[in-house]
Amino acid sequence: MICFFACTTDQDNLKEEAKKEIIKSENEFARMAAEKGIKAAFLFYCDNDAVIKRGNDSLVFKKSGIDSFYSAPFHKSTTLKWSVDFADASDDGSMGYTYGKYSWQLNDSAGNKIDEHQGIFHTVWKRQKDGSWKFVWD
């Protein structure tokens, strides 16, 4: 019985620590997108085999596809902001997910920011071999 409680506590600690790390990674991801651009942030935080869903059920596969997708001229004049509303992690701390609200803004021809789109995001995170977190689904 002692082992049961000790193991449960260790699992709870792994899960809670992973949730904190995932939220931190998500916040750093959003900060990088604001400071260095959408493409740089997505390429830095994506797993090599990540998949992103964009538009009307369009899937973009792997880091190379994400690179190509965010190379479109449209993304150079847009800003993406988001914040986490909820995060959870697996009991062993190897996977997790977040969701929250996001907004796209673009610059018009005069340089004014225009709200283009708002919505809800959902990101699935995977712990990497080096202990960092990369998204596998966005």
Main attributes?
138 residues; alpha+beta; Nuclear Transport Factor 2, Chain: A
CATH top level is Alpha Beta
The largest β sheet comes out as: 6 strands, mixed
How many angstroms separate the termini? 41 Å
In CATH, the topology is named Nuclear Transport Factor 2, Chain: A
- The CATH architecture classification is Roll
Helix content: 25-40%
Categorize the overall geometry.
globular
Mean pLDDT: 90
Poorly predicted tracts of residues: none
Number of DSSP helices? 3
Order of helices and strands: HHEEHEEEE
Count of separate structural domains: 1
In order across it, which strands form the biggest sheet? 2-1-6-5-4-3
- The assigned structural class equals alpha+beta
Radius of gyration: 17 Å
Strand content: 35-45%
Describe the 3D structure.
With 138 residues, the chain is of the alpha+beta class. The chain has one domain: Roll (Nuclear Transport Factor 2, Chain: A), CATH 3.10.450. It contains 3 helices and 6 strands; from the N terminus they run ααββαββββ.
